[in-house]
Amino acid sequence: MIKKALAVLLLAQLCTILFSFLSVYQEPTSLNAVSSHYIHNEPKELGAANAVTAVVVTYRGLDTLGEVTILFAASVVVGLLMFLHKNESAPRRDGSELLKTGASLLFPLILLFGAYVFINGHLSPGGGFQGGAIIASALMLTILANPNRHVGHGFFWAIESISGFVFVLLGIAGLVLAGGFLDSRVLPPGTFGHVASAGLIPVIYIFVGLKVGAELSSVVLSLHGKSEGGVQHHD
Amino acid sequence: MTSTIAMTTGILLVLIGLFAILTQKDLIRIIVGFSIFDIGVHVIMISIGYISDATAPIIENLSQLGQSYVDPVPQALVLTAIVIGLGISAFMLTFAVFMFKKRGSLDINSFRDLKW
Amino acid sequence: MEIFLIIFAVLTVASALIAVATTKKAVSILAAGVMGLFASIVFIFLAAPDVAMTEAAIGSGLTTFIFFFALNRVKSDRAQGGADD
Question: How large is the ipTM?
Fold first, then answer.
């Protein structure tokens, strides 16, 4: 009880501090210098219509590389710990006929939508992270429909490592042929607003999408676990 | 005004999430509190980047550059932060399942090894 | 315009409160997922469609299912009698 009272007291203090910051906050009416530079020079420099994509892939590309590395580490640890403690439960009940048919019908369409989202990431809202999440949710739908089917991790690890390798190679290509690491001006900018424009940005985002999709799928697969019966090992 | 409302929402979510982290006993509920906290921080960051009466930073044609756009940098940072948040949640849930297999309980009062 | 933002902000905070206050774990996880969905609508009002898409797909879709998978593992262990609680 005293713990709860202490927590409430702490939160009340934090609330006072945060709301006193909020009371003096003025909504800005113009961009700061860095963002204004990004918005106004990016269409001529890089040629991507979506400024967020340009910031994610090129201006802050190193952040994205670090981020997919963190996600990779998380998925490896989740897979390892779940492998050490396999779930030996009874076979799960299959999904209904409606769910199974619907899942097999929708699976290719959801994959196609995910690919659409990350190929058009430089023109419209969307990109590698969203597309990867959509691909992982397509996989999750098939898992829910057929919980007893064995899905191997090997395929996802292969896609993950190949796209990560290509991502770094494209970054080095920017270092050699253009201004710096992950510079997208290796290819010509093309016509503003077309799919094949903005230099390397769509190419890099496709590989980011594949990598994120494979990593999220592998996290989902590991946490779901396989119910194969098999050997019992308790320690 | 818009950003003030959103920032209030974010601060309330942060406080609710911290309250859950501090007072709940169950590991999975603590992780739910963490994900509420996470979303609250994202809402605050996005509302800091909001400019009055501005549109999304998607440029339709090159002649429109005089129009006012919201700040794209916080959006890019939050984009990566959401994905990392999922990775961290999965990581913590794995540890919760691991602890359950070792101890047979998710209650934090039953983990007393480091208590002296 | 702002009245809609206030409605969705109130819904977001309300679902977060439900997630913390409820006694059932499954309801708590679902309420956190619904909160992510409302938060993605708040992101649209803040002119951030990219973030709204990511939040809807990851924050409310995948996270909810990952929580349920973990809960399912804990429950199936408890049902097996491998754990004594």
Answer: 0.84
